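Section 3.1: Structural characterization of target chains.
Under the original work plan, the team committed to producing a structural model for every single-chain target entering the pipeline before any wet-lab resources were allocated. The record below documents one such target. The sequence was received from the expression subgroup and is listed exactly as submitted; it comprises 243 residues.
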Amino acid sequence: MALLPAACRSAFLPQKFSSNEALYVASQREYSAKRYENAVSGFERLTIELPARDTLFPRSLFFLAKSHVGRKEHLLAAQNFTRLAESFPSDSLADDALLQAGLAYARLWRKPVLDAQYGETALSTLRTLVAVYPSSALAGETQKQINQLLEWFARKTYANGMHYYRRKAWDSAIIYFKDVVAKYPETATARDALLRLAVAFQAIGYQEDVTETCNTLRSAYSGDRQVRDVCGAAPVAATTPVP
């Protein structure tokens, strides 16, 4: 009895539709109903059957990719979004496809500490959108996603520095913290890296570097309590006596 509803439900068979237009409409209906497996079958067949110049082709690719997202098949989604953008760069969906491809690749990089291969692909894809479609209405959202990825890259590099910092391997820690500051200066993690740099320089007696780092911290984070704790109050500038 439990199998009866499934047995009675008609199967979705893409090859049974009389035209590509009818299959597209039916596949859209399956997508809207969140029957993503059926939607994948339908849109996948359309990407095989449709002529390259058919206006339904890029839309079929777009919803094929969206259906893969619905199934949490993020790599397949990213590949199809990218295929759309590369094959139909003038289509109105091209910039949207690049954004969605970047998001799909970003979902595959689950934590900053993990291998950043997919994160790098996500960042490259989003930067391509900004470069190729500078006037896109999606530019703001794209930059937001780029900033988030940069924060993750900064955190990953910072974590490598902390590995050595905790072991008082100051020279190695300094290399990573400097990398954070140089490559990701606009991130929140850059402040933390500067603070750790100041402490590391103090530990090995590099007073000039301490002074330079603390001046940078005071300038960028005026009034920050941790900056005061690490660097102390800003020195009072000497005054020339009035004759």
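Residues 4-8, 236-243 have pLDDT under 50 and may be disordered.
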